Each structure stands twice: as structure tokens, then as C-alpha cells.
Amino acid sequence: MAGGAEPYRPRGFVGYETIMKSLPNILTSSRLVMALFMFVALAAAAGAVPFLSDRLTAESQLRLERWAFYAFVVASVTDIFDGWLARKLDAVSVWGAILDPIGDKILVCGALLGLMALGPNPMVVLPAGLILFREFTVSALREVGAGKGLKLPVTVLAKWKTTLQLVAIGAEMILASWGAFGLPPEPSAMGAFTVIAHGLLWLATVVTLVTGAQYWEAARKALT
Predict the structure, then answer these.
(1) Averaged pLDDT score across all residues of the chain
(2) What is the pLDDT of residues 137-173, one digit of tens each?
(3) What's the number of CA atoms in the CB half-sphere (13 Å) around residue 213?
């Protein structure tokens, strides 16, 4: 523009750069919404939503299980890209740093509770409980530490822990909703997948407990 004047922007105009810098937080917020939808869908399919579950047909229940899995997958993908985009676009923010771990925990905890609602599975209840206990304990440690000016940085193993949790839970969701995906009912196919899914979940549980012990020790040393 002549004279170096700023180009005219109508009132309410949002620049491309502003939108791009907001994209990581939008993805993180969408993960919270999809995690909530996933949990409600699983709860409804399990017959745990008053005034709704009683009206669902068998086909509707299977459809809800599929939608819950798709929402879980999309939410898991946003967990990969929101942090990468924030660093790539130089859009790291305090709000994003707060929402990201909250979104992870809500997604993982919601999926585990939904799985247990679908039906009792002894091979899922124990590892799911251990994972939930660890997540709540670490959250409490972070809250207490923040009040004393202590920060517990996320370790590399903890990042892998989240990825392993999501993969394992996704496998367990497929196993719990086997018929919803039209998978072959042969015992050999389902049996092999059962071993894989349970093995991944127990591996994720072990890594989860290890990282929880690391955070506990770091907090203990810093607060002593």
C-alpha cells in the first residue's frame, strides 16, 4: 500500500496467522469434546444412560460402539498433532499446556470407564484400575507441587506411555465391540487378537506405573 499504510481489514476480520496459531488449542479442545462423546456413547451402548439406553435397538447399540471407537481414534490423532503444530507454528501457550494433559487423561480415563461399562472383563479391570490410580496420583502431585512452585516436566518415557495407552485401549475397544465391526467370530481369530490386546494393555500398565514411580520420587526429593 502507498505510504506504508496498513491494508484495510473489516471489523471482525481474523488474520490467517491468528487462526493458525489458534489451531493447536482448537485441536486440544476438540479432543475433550470427542472424549466426552466417546464415553457417553459407550455408556449408552452399555445401557447406563437413563431414558436413552432403554430405547436403543441392538443395531443402535452396535452403531454407538463404532462411533465411540471412531471418536477415540480421531481424538488420539489430535494428541499427536496439537503439540507438533504448537511447536511448528511457534504457538505454544499456557492455555494449551494446561489443556493438553487434561485432554489426555480425560480421553484415557473415559475410554477405560467405558470399556468396563460394556461388560465385566477380569483381564481389563485390574490394569484399568492401576492406570486410573496412577493418573489421579500424578495429577494430585502436580497440583500440590504447583502450589509450592514445583514443576514436574513430562519425561520421554511418559510420552511413550501415553501412546502405548492409546494403542492398547484402542485394541481393547475393538475386542469389546467385536461384533460391531463385523469381524469374523471364529475363536482362532478372536483368541489371537485377545492375547494381543490384553498384552498391550498390561505392557501399558507396567510403563504407566514406572513413570508414576518416577514422578513420585522426583516430587519427594523436591519437596523434602
Answers:
(1) 83
(2) 988 888 777 777 777 777 788 888 989 999 999 999 9
(3) 7
d(CA 214, CA 197): 26
Q: So what's the pLDDT on residue 168?
A: 96
Cα–Cα dist 152/143, whole Å: 10
Q: CA distances (Å), 60 to each of 7, 41, 57, 110, in order?
A: 53, 10, 5, 21
Burial class (CB in 10 A: 0-12, 13-18, 19+), 23: middle
**Confidence category of residue 92, pLDDT binned at 50, 70, 90:** low
CB burial class (10 A; 0-12, 13-18, 19+) of residue 113?
Answer: middle
Q: Rounded to whole angstroms, what are the CA distances from 25 to 14, 35, 39, 72, 158?
A: 16, 15, 21, 18, 21
Long-range CB contact pairs, 42-49, < 8 A, 24+: 42/68, 42/111, 42/114, 42/115, 42/117, 42/118, 43/114, 43/117, 45/118, 46/114, 46/117, 46/118, 46/119, 48/117
φ, ψ dihedrals at 149, nearest 5°: 75, 20
The CA-atom distances, in angstroms, between 44 and each of 21, 40, 55 are 36, 6, 10
How far from each other are the two terminal CA atoms of the chain, in whole angstroms?
62
pTM of the predicted model, to two decimals? 0.84
pLDDT at 64: 94
* DSSP-derived secondary structure letter, 5: P
Q: Nearest Cα to 117, choosing from 54, 192, 43? A: 43
